[in-house]
Amino acid sequence: MAASNKIIISCAITGATHTPTMSPYLPVTPSAIIDQAAEAAEAGAAILHLHARDAATSRPTGDLDTWFHILRSLKQRTPAVLNMTTGGSTFMSIEDRLAAPLAAKPELCSCNMGSMNFGTYTMIPKYKGKWKHDWEEDYLEASRGAIFRNTFADIEAILDKLGANGTRFEFECYDVGHLYNLAHMMDRGLVKLPMFVQLIVGTLGGIGAEPENLVFMKKTADKLFGDQYRWSVLAGGRHQLNMGTMAATMGGNVRVGMEDSLYAGKGKMATSNAEQVRLIREILERLSLEIATPDEAREMLGLKGGDQTAF
To answer: Which cofactor does this sequence's record say it needs (predicted)?
Structure first.
């Protein structure tokens, strides 16, 4: 099968949404992030979507030393594409969010295509009074009054500054309007083709995880971008596997990982990111779909190669 027809599995290792209390298996230290990311790649993930966490507090961090430790360690252990977040967390400034990617010059970065409410406070009642760290409850509650900022100026800065380093982007679209923002940037010549578009469903503040919503987003992307893009689906929580499977049957790629869901099936907590990768890989292969290798993913997305990074 030609590489262009294979399925890229992305794995988002830890993110900035889930906190340590929520799962004993969530990687919340640099060493755990490194180990779980390498295992996810071995299980079949061609792309590893990365956030950094502080070794002492387990909080999301933009610290350069922490980031470079993670990136250099993973580069020694896996050929997978290392995809750095530019989202960081809702509570980081755009300068803090960009500092590590600008220094590291990765092959691939996320780029969020619009400002939005990003509510995680609804998870508090499930864990109230049982927190491992003092910061967790306040961190989640703060999302009630916060905005995940991604202004047009912020997006322009990401595209300009990181694009100058040869970095390509995973364009994260949490709602239909984000697709139109991306089309606007494409019309202005700020986006290089072909694009990699992540259709995101099931986040509080974005579009719901319903099949008709995914179909509508895909139809809208087709109308706006024609055949000039590749796409994937990120579905939050219990929707991860079913929406990913739906995307693959529609010709898309898939994303799993403990940033998006802490489970590996109904009522079963995932013990690792690799477990989620193995689950979706088994589903895809039973559907007679082939899985892309890291080098095939690089070819499909037009990436510059791991030897062209600064780590």
So the answer is: Zn(2+)
Chain Cα centroid distance, residue 64: 20
Phi-psi region of 244 (alpha: psi -120 to 50; beta: other; left: phi over 0): alpha
Nearest by Cα to 116 from 59, 157, 172? 172
CATH architecture, domain 8-302: Alpha-Beta Barrel (3.20)
d(CA 43, CA 190): 35
Confirm if 273 and 27 have CB atoms less than 8 A apart.
yes
d(CA 111, CA 134) in angstroms, rounded, equals 31
Quote the CA–CA distance of 126 and 131 in Å, as a whole number: 11
- Annotated domain spans of the chain: 8-302
Question: CA separation (Å) from 92 to 88, 89, 123, 150, 205?
Answer: 6, 6, 21, 11, 18
CA atoms within 13 A of residue 37's CA, in its CB half-sphere: 33
Provide the pLDDT confidence category of residue 6 given band limits of 50, 70 and 90: very high
* Predicted pLDDT of residue 128: 80
What's the rounded Cα separation, in Å, for the pair 277 and 262? 13
